[in-house]
Predict the structure.
Amino acid sequence: MFRRSGSMCASANVGARDRPMAGLYFHIPFCKRICSYCDFYKSADLRRMDEVLAAMGRELEAQRGYLGGEPIRTRYFGGGTPSLCTPAQIGELLARAADLFDCSAVGETTLEANPDDLDASRLEALRRAGVDRLSIGIQSLDDACLRLMNRRHTAVQAVEAVRAARRAGFDNVTVDLIFGIPGFGGDALRRSLDGVLELEVEHVSAYHLTVEPHTALGRRAARGEFAPVDEAVSEQEFATVHDALTQAGYEHYEVSNFARPGFRARHNAAYWHGEKYLGIGPAAHSYDGRERHWNVDSVDRYLAGEAAGHEILSDRDRFNEYVMTRLRTAEGIDLAEAEGLFGERRIGRLKAQARGMETGGALVSDGRRLAIPPRRFLVSDAVIGAFFEA
């Protein structure tokens, strides 16, 4: 499905603006059920929800000067499961933010949601509260795969959630998919991709399953009950995802992200392009241009007001992060911009290192930009790591 209205067409020009702008992130750490692969901070104790949301409102006020007066361009509710909040609670946080920050230029307000939370009345209320973009965690359209991941929805519910969002007037929808799941590649993966394409969403985030040690799947793997797919299968499935989505008209613009023209994720672009952002809530991270800050990853400690952590990025850190984030995008590194930021000598060394990789096809360059071809994104970590300064 293509855009039904022109209200967000400026999203085609992510990063093209006259003045610096910033992002605002709300971390809602609560889940009804813990997914077997999830390594993010979360809590299944929903009794603390109201306390945490009230504390987040207070944190907003305490951090009102963090962004140096830069207008807010995007707002994002992540988690956890933000769709467990009532639309009124979401609206209250957005209203509080508008009281404390310049939100007059906001062009995108995203809420992550589980499919089974999205009934018609909630969707309509979320739109009234100010949410204009939904990120729906479909993950798979295979019920057996969903059970393996301990998801709390079915494939039918996932499809219906997207359709209900359309009926409620949402015309900017992204869905998540996970691939690289043992036993669910091949035809099962293609069926999920076909099902997503039939929904005609504007954006797809497709992630390779990572088995982390402190997850249910990680514990199963440690007992020898579960084994991740091998490298050859990973590459094959990545190619399947890339080909299916790009042939259907999606732009593979970042390692895990595909968009219809004009529908790139604006908020995530803040992370990839070094813009400022303020994170509110337990385990949320923030960046002010030179320092990174993060909140404690505990509801109890967050409510107790325990001090958060921070680090000052050195020039080497900033260079390494610049290389890492830019080479994860289709545009890659703007060599003139990089030279202005980090100096001719440093970028001259980077160009020299890149020449051998260009010959092998791992990098491409037109003399102005240096980029990894999207079809090679799966091995981007190895390429990027070669440029890091120790």
About this structure: Residues 332-390 form one domain.
